[in-house]
Amino acid sequence: MTKRIAIFASGSGSNFQAITDACRKGLLDATPALLVCDRPGAYVVERATAADIPYFAFAPKSYQTKVEFEDHILQELARYEVDFIVLAGYMRLIGPTLLDAYKGKIVNIHPSLLPAFPGLDAVGQALEYGVKLTGVTIHFVDEGMDTGPIIAQHTIEIGPDDTRESLEKKIHEIEHTFYPKTLQQLFTVKGEAAIR
Ligand code: GRF
Q: pTM for the complete prediction?
């Protein structure tokens, strides 16, 4: 059955765009039911509006606790009958409220070959370290920072002339096809069995 997905994002949302485009083109058998955004002014909200996808944009500071805002998110997820959560540049750890309600049904994309360079600015960390190979990881989400079971990885070479800008561009280009493709594999019964 077609999955109803919520995409969580905090910024520009180029992955949000790639995933929703893939759904529209029939490359990904999923319905983008909701955008959840923790920065009401983020560009991804404009993308959702343009694509006619409902969004829930909230300011975490207007809640007393993470439990409170995640409870509110849960209500929105129920309202739009979401059965799977796709994190795409959501700059916040997922708490027990969401993890318990969507056990094994939350995935994330991270711009490094995990377990190398978790957390903030993975691209900067890779350049600073001087690795010659980096990449993209798609993984299930657990309570840690980029620590859940790995679903798929894609390598990217860092050449001598690469800058932060050129590397970010390469990473985004890969992400935009790799994320929808991996989700499609995950959403087929065979793919889910193969990955688990
Ligand atoms: C991506 O590089 C993703 O790997 C990371 O955050 C970035 C989001 O970019 N988690 P965008 O907002 O989808 O353009």
A: 0.96
